[in-house]
């Protein structure tokens, strides 16, 4: 209601500001209808001081931008990059002032001078009714252009910088989603689900309505009825090792007071234009706290996560004759993965279990990007949030997508509330992967007894087993 009132207030200010602008133009003998280019309007918005006229002008700019096709949009992004950057002369003067007399005052001027003009432009555009929504959409279109135009990256960086402040955790509201939630929000959950497709309304109801299911989402006051990110949670008596029983129609429903485990089995970002702004870490921790207060018996918080890049990585390792991630005796067995419907043949699936699990352990504990972080994006997210790599689940997702991306593997990341901060620090400082002893044992079977791996009684911490390109020799850490 407050957001709606504020929006109506901005709308009213915008209308009055627009009338004021038109009267001013008439007094100056200018045409009643504006013929200025979009760039000229942006310059006028930056040079203006009046609040009402600024809101009206911001609204007009966003309305005109919404009418642009792909080519003119790209030209507008080019103008943002070239015409609305930092004022170089002001920067030079600020640097000279700082060098002549270093002080808080000259440092503040240097900070202001270094800021690109487009950041202030975005702030003023944000004052228009629906301005935040329009700017998020604008950034999404900019991301499409970035695929072909690297020179627009500074504009994108400014969007991320501002959005990180505007969508700070302090502004976000956590709401539980259930069957009584307005349909406009429920429809968006169906549309935005990115991990396990929601087939229809009945499927959605099975995920949010039963007493052993929960769904939570973050909202922002400026984006009414638009979830930013949501998580689906299953309550159970043990750590699940497959997704099908969680999503099954007609499954046995567990009363919440018997549950000991909360499983985050689907986390979906809803606004592509907010990519690069972190919500998930806050969401998981706050949902864990919310559920703990409601159900004190819950002792275990885990994910059941996809492994989107494993199949492609394993194909590359199999193609390398000197791969350190694939044991020599496993190569012939891994060729069975090329057979259609191998997973439906019990003997074939059993023959593949251990070789694939060994390769998966190498993938999680060793495969890294050139920047030295885990190759798997889901692993980067959860490990960075302080989770532990707890369990690799064999044939946990036999959907076409699961088989194509990961040969059916899924993973449990454990959020031990007493260890989260320690695990997070270990990952942040040295990219250490904290893993259970079961996962470590799978990897140890790739190497001889003299390998310099360290396995603790309950879990092991690994850094990089090997670096560089596929097939390079392993290094113990």
Q: In this structure, how is the largest beta sheet organized?
A: 5 strands, mixed
* Strand line-up in the sheet with most strands: 1-2-3-4-5
- The chain-level structural class is alpha+beta
What order do the helices and strands follow?
Answer: HHHHHHHHHEHHEEHEHEEHHHHEHEHEHE
Low-confidence stretches: 448-477
Looking at the overall shape, the CATH architecture of the largest domain is Up-down Bundle
What is the highest CATH level, the class of the largest domain?
Mainly Alpha
| Name of the CATH superfamily of the largest domain | Malonyl-CoA decarboxylase, oligemerization domain
Mean pLDDT: 87
Overall helicity? 40-55%
What is the strand tally?
A: 10
The value of Rg in angstroms is: 27 Å
> How much strand content do the residues show?
5-15%
Question: Ends: how far apart?
Answer: 56 Å
Give the helix tally.
Answer: 20
Overall 3D form: globular
CATH topology call of the largest domain: Butyryl-CoA Dehydrogenase, subunit A, domain 3
Tally of individual domains: 3
Quick structural gist:
The protein is 49% helix and 11% strand.
Descriptive account of the structure:
- By secondary structure, this protein is an alpha+beta fold.
- It has three domains: 2-166, Malonyl-CoA decarboxylase, oligemerization domain (Butyryl-CoA Dehydrogenase, subunit A, domain 3, Up-down Bundle); 170-303, Aminopeptidase; 306-462, 3-Layer(aba) Sandwich (Aminopeptidase), CATH 3.40.630.
- Helix content is 49%, strand content 11%.
- It has 20 helices and ten strands.
- It has helices at 2-27, 38-47, 51-66, 70-83, 88-100, 104-114, 117-125, 131-146, 153-166, 183-192, 201-208, 244-247, 280-294, 310-319, 331-334, 346-366, 377-384, 400-406, 420-430, 437-444, and strands at residues 173-176, 213-219, 229-236, 261-269, 300-303, 305-306, 388-393, 410-414, 433-436, 459-462.
- The strands form three sheets. Strands 1-2-3-4-5 form a five-stranded mixed sheet, with helices on both faces. It has a three-stranded antiparallel sheet with strand order 6-8-7.
- The chain is globular and about 75 Å long.
- The protein starts with a helix and ends in a 15-residue tail after the last strand.
- Residues 448-477 have low confidence and may be disordered.
